[in-house]
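pinging the channel bc i need a second pair of eyes. not urgent but kinda urgent?? the chain im working w is below, pasted from the shared doc
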Amino acid sequence: MMNIEKLLHMQLKLDQHIESEHGLGEEDLVDRKILALLVEIGELANETRSFKFWSKKGASAKEVILEEYVDGIHFILSLGLEIGLQEIELDEKHADAKELNEQFLLVYKAVTDFREERSVTHYFSLFNHYLTLGETLGFSSSEVFDAYAEKNKVNYERQEKGY
């Protein structure tokens, strides 16, 4: 099982850094983060090419897909912090995995449901659907954790360079 608490703490520090650097301390960023998450999910789907029935070109390399996947984890953790979560306990067993395109659609729906009602229940549903998407893509918990930690470092470096 992934150490969600450690990831949440890392995300809190990154969010605080970004909000301080950009003077966003009191601004409600939920809708912007939801839109960013939807964009990241689209970028992830684009790298898998799973929906491109008209194309014979294959998916991007696993490392590219994993990096796009953890971009979504960043925004999901950040949304949890926005609604006041200080700890996240997820079920070890997620929803039953669907076919990849169906799983993407379930994640999109979960994001929309969360936007309509910023509840802990909808948040956990979103996170669980997203983790199931990761499992469907073949990612282990340790791969996701390591890739998240690496991308977190990159995000700090980007902030220092005025990204």
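so The longest helix spans residues 62-82. and The CA atoms of residues 76 and 116 lie 15 Å apart. — does that match what u expected or am i reading it wrong
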